[in-house]
Design a protein that fits this description.
The protein is α/β, with parallel strands linked by helices. It is built from eleven helices and 13 strands. Strands 1, 2, 3, 4, 5, 6 and 7 form a seven-stranded mixed β-sheet that branches. Helix 6 (about 185-200) packs across helix 7 (about 210-225) and helix 9 crosses helix 10 (about 270-280). The longest helix is centred in the middle third of the chain and has 16 residues, at about 185-200. The two termini are about 25 Å apart. One of its GO terms (molecular function) is 8-oxo-7,8-dihydrodeoxyguanosine triphosphate pyrophosphatase activity.
Amino acid sequence: MVKPDVRGAGAVIWRKKDRKTQVLIVHRPMWDDWSFPKGKAKKGESLHECCIREMREETGLDVVLGVPLGWQHYTIAGGRKKEVRYWLAEVAEKSNPAVKLRPKVGLASKKEIDDARWVTIKQAKKLLTHKGDRTILGHMKDLWSDDKHETVPLLLARHTRATKRSAWMEKGKRGREETRPLTKTGYERAESLVRVFSAYGVERIVSSPWRRCVESVTPYAKAAGLAVETHDELTEAAHAKKQKPVASLIRNWLRKELLPTVVCLHRPTLPTVMQTIEDYTPQVIMRQVPEKDPWLKTGEVIVVHVANRRGKAPTIVALERIRPVIE
């Protein structure tokens, strides 16, 4: 595929009202069309950040991202190629700690967006001007028809880059494995994770108690005003002795948790974690992630979108692999 000249992001913001599912569409007077809110990514901005910002600019709403809905590819002025990535999104609760740490964003002018309207899926299909938007709506409708549009995210984060083991534990320095800190780049990557966690509305932070894991999620914890819950079973040492406690922790979250959560992990624990995830994931979706070690690079995240449908086992609807942008 040809590399795009312009990249952007958009969302299908949805809600339930009067027992009906509604989506939000906007009117652009310059083009006299109805579309889903979207916009162009700024330099150094990830598509996740772009989507959050554009939703605020074009609708005045703070949202949290849900299941990815795919891409649109088309040609714009000057023959340039543009691609836009879409997600399902919901309006964030005012109490959600992820929202308060986002930068302030002004509203788009009336020349850009002069109307925003909540409509049913059937109404949206009639009003949307462009075929690409109707295709994205179709993806959302498929999820809705199968009751898989409402999900909770579990973010699996490998800790960011740490000081080399050999250097930290060198004779005379008395460095212990569990106290090995992040490098300068590791700290920068930890700061960049704040924007990823915020995009998905993370409200709970779980981590190995070892320093490099805790330091990887501390910037978000401080910014959001959340505590870091540490679990000894997530350490490399504990996992080397017994793998079942790690599998049980992940399995219990999948079955019972209702809060968007990040779990910060060590590389050696990832095979157990991914094997547990695979038990709830259709094979066609598992193909989107690596099949073997290292699973994730330092500082990378896999977002697990989990649908907990009444009377049914939890089902993983989508997986996303994210490498956060360092400013």
